[in-house]
Specification:
Blueprint: H1 3-22, H2 32-49, H3 52-67, H4 73-90, H5 95-99, H6 105-115, H7 120-169, H8 174-228, H9 233-241, H10 246-249, H11 252-288
């Protein structure tokens, strides 16, 4: 959750609670018996519906949705453009060093397929399978909170019925009436507020973030396949920006030029440094290992030729 959303939640929540305070004080709306009826009933239904591992996963997913920052499609496009330029300038195998630094599992797997020289059909099949199971897991977590949101008002009504029964059973006792009436009304309030202000928004937030992550994964798949097909970086930029809104597409051509310039400059500097190191090593070798001086031959004096004897 970003800061603006957090500010909106805090502001609107304060106004909502302030309405209770203005209508008679907050203590009037607190009833432990009603709270226990609603919450205990909710979790009893939850444990009867799903295994503990799925419940735990659902709450972990909900926490990650509100606490972890999710990359935007603009971030993904920037990463893919840089991977494309790097692979064209330095070679596909140079992406192995980049792969070790990637935190996102889906992108890391996609780069692994690219470095290992998988075919386009295999990359698409593997990534589509991973996307399908990711969506299924998220939908299961979403259904957990949808179940809670549907059941909360019902248990609020159950608390109201319990309070009314207690009130009728002690109709001759003023103290019983006083203690039962709050349970009858406040439990319904708890159920409605929990359902519509807490549980249903969590389920909807999981659904929204799942769709956003699926878009990012689609971007990654198309970008990696384009890099594997050795598409021109400018064509890749046009293809990826089609996933973005018109306002987000601005500046991507300039970004590609800047990335290309960066890698070409880096490659030229590396080549110049390599040539300089080679020249320095050659000079050092010539200084450390002196060449042997040429040997002078002594002059041959009084060279005589033996007479040629002819055989008879």
């Amino acid at each position: 959750m970003n800061k603006k959303n957090m500010l909106g939640v805090l502001l609107c929540g304060a106004i909502f609670v302030g309405g209770f305070w203005m209508s008679g004080g907050l203590a009037v709306y607190w009833n432990l018996a009603a709270f226990l009826i609603v919450v205990a009933g909710l979790f009893a239904a939850l444990f009867m519906s799903y295994p503990y591992a799925r419940i735990r996963t659902a709450f972990l997913v909900a926490r990650s949705v509100y606490t972890e920052r999710q990359p935007t499609p603009d971030d993904i496009v920037r990463i893919l453009l840089e991977l494309s330029v790097k692979s064209r300038v330095e070679g596909v195998l140079s992406l192995e060093a980049v792969r070790q630094k990637i935190a996102d599992t889906f992108l890391k797997n996609a780069v692994t397929f690219l470095v290992d020289n998988y075919k386009e059909r295999d990359i698409r099949e593997f990534l589509n399978t991973e996307m399908a199971f990711f969506r299924e897991r998220r939908q299961q977590s979403e259904r957990v909170f949808q179940t809670l949101a549907k059941a909360a008002p019902a248990f609020g009504v159950a608390g109201s019925v319990i309070g009314l029964i207690g009130m009728l059973s002690g109709i001759q006792d003023t103290q019983a009436l006083v203690s039962s009436i709050p349970v009858a009304f406040v439990s319904t309030l708890y159920g409605v507020v929990l359902s519509n202000m807490v549980l249903a928004p969590i389920a909807e937030s999981i659904n929204f973030h799942t769709g956003a992550e699926m878009l990012n994964q689609k971007l990654v798949m198309e970008g990696i396949i384009a890099i594997a097909k050795e598409q021109n970086s400018h064509r890749l930029e046009k293809k990826l920006t089609s996933f973005l809104s018109p306002s987000e597409r601005e500046g991507k051509a300039e970004l590609l030029k800047a990335i290309t310039k960066k890698y070409i400059t880096r490659q030229r500097k590396a080549a110049a440094a390599k040539a300089e190191d080679g020249a320095r090593e050659a000079a050092a070798f010539n200084e450390d290992v002196p060449m042997p001086a040429p040997r002078e031959e002594s002059a041959v004096q009084n060279l005589r030729l033996a007479p040629i004897v002819r055989m008879a």
